[in-house]
Amino acid sequence: MAAARAHGTIVDGVSATRVHLANTSNTPAELIEANYRIRVEQQSIRRESGGVGNYRGGDGVVRSYRVLAPSMHLTTCIERMVIPPFGMQVGKPGQTCRVSLIRGGTNVEIDGKSNLVLQQDDRVTIESCGGGAYGAA
């Protein structure tokens, strides 16, 4: 799953990109679906998730997965769930990451450090954080 890159000092941040030295690969949905009993139901840019400033932070990504197997394990190891990516020189921070599980019509927020067993037809949505902005808007 891709993330956003923070601002630059002369350019806006890059949306939906693999960030160097981060665990944010952008594995193609076709590869995931060919190797796991999961269907990728949504992949989009998380609009307006980047911080506002003279140079905006890049927007993150939204990706939703549907579990096709009878069960499987989910382990989250995600940062920036509480403290947002900071802005610089009065630029605003980006939005924090979110992970949610929809099971039987009920939406449950999942912590950034969790282990749980998913059931068939569960839908997990990951919203990566936006990058922080640079400078006053």
Q: End-to-end distance, in Å?
A: 29 Å
Looking across the biggest beta sheet, what order are the strands in? 1-2-7-4-5
> Which radius of gyration do the C-alpha atoms yield?
16 Å
Structural class: mainly beta
Could you estimate the helical fraction of the residues in percent? Answer: under 10%
Helical run tally:
1
Mean pLDDT: 89
**Extended strand count:** 7
Overall body shape: elongated
Order of helices and strands: HEEEEEEE
How is the biggest beta sheet arranged?
Answer: 5 strands, antiparallel
Proportion of beta-strand residues: 25-35%
- Low-confidence residue ranges: none
How is this structure best described in words?
The chain is mainly β and 137 residues long. It is 5% helix and 34% strand. The strands form two sheets. It has a five-stranded antiparallel β-sheet, covered by helices on one side. The chain has a two-stranded antiparallel ribbon with strand order 3-6. The longest helix is centred in the first third of the chain and has 7 residues, at 29-35.
Strand-helix topology:
Elements: H1 29-35, E1 38-46, E2 60-67, E3 71-77, E4 98-103, E5 106-109, E6 113-119, E7 123-127
Antiparallel strand pairs: 1-2, 2-7, 3-6, 4-5, 4-7
